[in-house]
Amino acid sequence: MRRSADVDHERRVAIFDLIEDNSFEVIKATEAGYHGPYKLTLAIEEGRLVFDLVTSEDQAVMVFKLAMSPFRRTIREYLSVCDRYYEAIKSSSPSQIEAIDMGRRGLHNDGSALLRERLEDKIILDHQTARRLFTLICVLHMKG
Questions:
Q1: pLDDT confidence bin for 3, thresholds 50/70/90
Q2: Beta 48-55 vs 38-45: how paired, if at all?
Q3: Per residue, what are the HEC states of the chain?
Q4: What is the pTM (predicted TM-score) of this model?
Q5: Cα Rg for the chain, rounded, in angstroms?
């Protein structure tokens, strides 16, 4: 049950951080003169990550799907390290916790870099926005 609480907390923090500060440029919309803000719905359908974007007035911007297969290994490794991290917090030394956390952050960075790469022809994201979205993708993966 603890994992659920940790995951829910991470999800809430990622959403809060995205609302407060993000860099999210939809190339097609920018070319058409619209610069946001956007509402984004993320989902996983039939093994694909679905991005559904609308304007703040609920006008459709675009819907597209990305294959999840390029993300699976990184997500699996990241979630495994997260489990070890949450266990380490309970009983490990600070240096052990720090070492696990460095690995966790490295995998998180790898996942966010992959996301930016896969989206580069549709959406331009900064590093922090990509990290927050990768967190949400991991949560979706766990629940899917």
A1: low
A2: antiparallel
A3: CHHHHHHHHHHHHHHHHHHHCCCEEEHHHHHCCCCCCEEEEEEEECCEEEEEEEECCCCEEEEEEEECHHHHHHHHHHHHHHHHHHHHHHHCCHHHHHHHHHHHHHHHHHHHHHHHHHHCCCEEECHHHHHHHHHHHHHHHHHC
A4: 0.89
A5: 16
